[in-house]
Each structure stands twice: as structure tokens, then as C-alpha cells.
């Protein structure tokens, strides 16, 4: 029995649609995008970047805020620093971190706005 409600792909190529989409992102841009979204896919890194968007913080402050060990926070900060998303400065024995990529911070803020909007639509605002 044939299911008439199931959508199937047609056998006709729509040249106007294909032509509109001929220009593609370069592999290097796609790779960088993938790396950016991988960074933002980790809850700890999201929390670190969010807090660094508010102000410059040291590892011990971030560890206290996040309820994590300084070692775990330092590990994430090294990763973020290697990707040039945060930068650091030393003041005596203390190293302070701040965000270093306005584009990623803008993307993070848009994602927060989106998550808040979706939560509001579903009735579970926090």
C-alpha cells in the first residue's frame, strides 16, 4: 500500500534554486564555524565566557562562581586562550582573564537571547 501522506523528493532539479545556492562557504570558514560552535557546546565554557563578558576575573573567582576546582577552570581557560577567545594579564601572583573576541561574545549573547525566548514560548522562564 502506498503512503500518500509521506513527502518524497521529486526527480526534477530546480535550476533556479540550485543556482541561488551555487556559492558555498569555503572549507576553512566551515571548519572555523565548527570550532566556534564546539566551544559554545560545552556548558562550562559557556559559563566561563558569560562571566567574563561581565568583567575580568581570576581563576579562583571563576572557580568560586562555577563551583569547580581551580584546576578544572584553568584547563578550560587554556583551551579558550589557545583559540584566542580569552586573554590574560598578570598582576603580581594573580592572573586575570577577560574575553578577547567580540564576535564570539555577540554570538553567545544571541544564543542566550534565543534560549530565553524559546524558554518563554514554552512557559519555562528562569
From TrEMBL:
SUPFAM superfamilies with a match to the protein in the record: Winged helix' DNA-binding domain (SSF46785)
InterPro entries (UniProt xref): ArsR-like_HTH, ArsR_HTH, HTH_ArsR_DNA-bd_dom, Metal_resp_trans_reg, WH-like_DNA-bd_sf, WH_DNA-bd_sf
Transmembrane feature ranges: none
Annotated HTH arsR-type domain residues: 25-119
SMART domains recorded: HTH_ARSR
GO molecular function: DNA binding; DNA-binding transcription factor activity
Gene3D superfamilies: Winged helix-like DNA-binding domain superfamily/Winged helix DNA-binding domain
Protein name per Swiss-Prot or TrEMBL: Transcriptional regulator, ArsR family
Top-level division of the source organism's lineage: Bacteria
Annotated GO biological process: response to cadmium ion
Keywords of the record: Cadmium resistance, DNA-binding, Transcription, Transcription regulation
Taxonomic lineage: Bacteria, Bacillati, Bacillota, Bacilli, Bacillales
Organism: Alicyclobacillus acidocaldarius subsp. acidocaldarius (strain ATCC 27009 / DSM 446 / BCRC 14685 / JCM 5260 / KCTC 1825 / NBRC 15652 / NCIMB 11725 / NRRL B-14509 / 104-IA)
Keyword DNA-binding among record annotations: yes
Keyword DNA-binding: yes
Amino acid at each position: 500500500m502506498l503512503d500518500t501522506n509521506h513527502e518524497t523528493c521529486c526527480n526534477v532539479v530546480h535550476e533556479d534554486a540550485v543556482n541561488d545556492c551555487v556559492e558555498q562557504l569555503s572549507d576553512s570558514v566551515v571548519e572555523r564555524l565548527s570550532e566556534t560552535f564546539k566551544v559554545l557546546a560545552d556548558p562550562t565554557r559557556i559559563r566561563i565566557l558569560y562571566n567574563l563578558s561581565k568583567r575580568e576575573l581570576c581563576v579562583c573567582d571563576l572557580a568560586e562562581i562555577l563551583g569547580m576546582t581551580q584546576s578544572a577552570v584553568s584547563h578550560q581557560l587554556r583551551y579558550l586562550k589557545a583559540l584566542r577567545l580569552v586573554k590574560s594579564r598578570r598582576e603580581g601572583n594573580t592572573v586575570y582573564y577577560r574575553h578577547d573576541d567580540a564576535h564570539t561574545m555577540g554570538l553567545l549573547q544571541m544564543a542566550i537571547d534565543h534560549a530565553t525566548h524559546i524558554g518563554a514560548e514554552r512557559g519555562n522562564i528562569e
